[in-house]
Amino acid sequence: MDDIYDAIIVGAGLAGSAAAIKLAQQGLEVVLIERGPYPGSKNLSGGVLYGRVLNDLIPNYWEEAPIERYITNQVVTFMTEDASFNIDFKTQKFNTPPYNGFSVLRAKFDRWLAEKAEANGTMLVPGIRVDHLIQKESRVVGIVAGDEQMYAKVVIAADGANSFLAQEAGLHQRIPTKHLAVGVKELIGLPRETIEERFHLTGNEGAAYGIVGFATHGVPGGAFLYTNQESISIGIVMHINETVRTKTRPADVIESFLAHPMIAPLIKDGKLLEYGAHLIPEGGLEMMPKLFTSGMLVVGDAAGLSVNNGFVVRGMDLALGSGIAAAEAVLEAKEKNDFSAESLSMYQKKLESSFVLKDMNTYAGAPYFMKRSRLYDSYPDFLTRMMTEIYLQESMPKDHILSSAMKSLKKSGISLIDLAKDGLGVRNL
Amino acid sequence: MNRMSVAEKLSINKYELDEGMPHIEVNNEICQAICEDKACLFVCPANVYSEQDGKIVADWAGCLECGACKAACSAEALVWSYPRGGFGIIYRNG
What we know:
The complex is a heterodimer. Chain A is an alpha+beta fold. Chain A is built from 16 helices and 19 strands.
């Protein structure tokens, strides 16, 4: 009989490495398998890592983690073809430990986190693709990778948004395209001083933009931009069902977004360093698979964990939180020597009592609201039209501001009923 | 900046090519029988798919492994897996 490990974790992203750290710290025998040649080599960040939970995992993480910039400037932009309207928030409160959020480059960050897992005794195995689960009497008992078989008391599927393992275990079926988005991102290199001048940043401060409207040619989703030390991560996110329905090409959309008059000067003279794409789970609670079965747990993107309320787009902190919750459940299962579905259901309970599922519940209605097309065409049009009306000085007498607003609303095709409906919809955010 | 074609963008990336081991197969019989929208031709950010002599062809070497094509293919005509361990796109920054 082969060795039986306590846990095999598939995928050395944030969820997988977080689980590995917690388990290895308690002396469990953990194997962390990564299909890329090193952790992070298959991963892309599309936003800000809201890092409080990281401090629970690695106290004072900022003293050693490869962080790009601490986000002190958060901007939401409503964009039309030739105009933009920003909500721009800056605070120095986000620039002191324990930092609120920061930008990362996953090839560096994930590698660092997996090294922490290794330092705690995890056996990290990169460059290996897990092909299948081994199941016996409807219990997951191990994995197959090429000619190799490995056995464990529990398998933790941290294999990303495409999670083949969760599907193989029957935890979810084919995910409907309305719950999935494709993210396309460019990493654009610029000198540190240029970034700091263009974005009004000092030292390690950083800026993060969320952009809706023309950025995606009206397809639900949005665009993002955030500053790294010496590069800018910039890209688009498009819901797959609407991308297909409107026959829109994400590869073209990112081009026209980068050429937008608001964006082009920010990346001028920059050098493309990398071009990437990734699948994003956007369906919230509705797309969430069953998270456990006998001998297996699902964490991170594989579990469909994400929150997007228009202002804040989260996934990485939820991944860390789910990895920690999974490890706690496995530790209790190990204590009882019971890895049945019933015993592992503790994972669900832990997630429900942690910020992970509490926040997913709070924003349960957000995916519906965020799909409304008015957010992507009518409202950017209305806001920029109204601001144009307010600032435009022609040789005609001006209206009161409220009257300008009402006229702009009408011209943008938004009825008062729409406005009321969306006003109520905002409660979901 | 000087805007670039998708092919030029991909050429900047680092790949470890698994020669002779395609990780994408297109079942053109299904495509021809039931596919109407040919979503793979436009949804892929890496322009992996093209139509040649009425058949869908996957130039899989440039694949970014996102899986958008598989999700978008309602005909389920794509046999799509990740490349073998260590192969495929290798993000240096991410």
